[in-house]
Specification:
The chain is an alpha+beta fold and 141 residues long. 35% of the residues lie in helices and 36% in strands.
Length: 141
Amino acid sequence: MKAAALTPELLKAVMDDLWEVSAHELAVFGEITDLMTTQLKMAIVDDDGKPVCVFGANNGSSGMRTWFLASSSFPHHAHAVTRMLRRLLIEQSKEHNVRKIVTTSASDHPMAKNWFRLLGYRPDGVTDWKNGVAQRYVLEL
């Protein structure tokens, strides 16, 4: 497993093989904007170069806002991805002088809250979206 620059091809590969949890979140959030215009964008690929997940962030006035999409292979690589993602969040935050990272998740997976906790996030309220409710999480560095 390694981090890689996000390309349109890697994003398309994940979107074509989207994990059901990511598909559910997309349904709740509705239409997504052009993810390739995100300031920071990366992928985590397996040893064969296939994308396991793609993610990105935009630095704004209320902190860095993130997005994350996983392919169907994510559950098989979840532990390694979690360790890599945690490290990348810290590294990129220092590099971009970010003290706060905010993300919103509509995941209905039973381990979602635990996963965000392992990444260092804390729950920070619930927000309504077009097609459902999502949990807001904050990581302060």
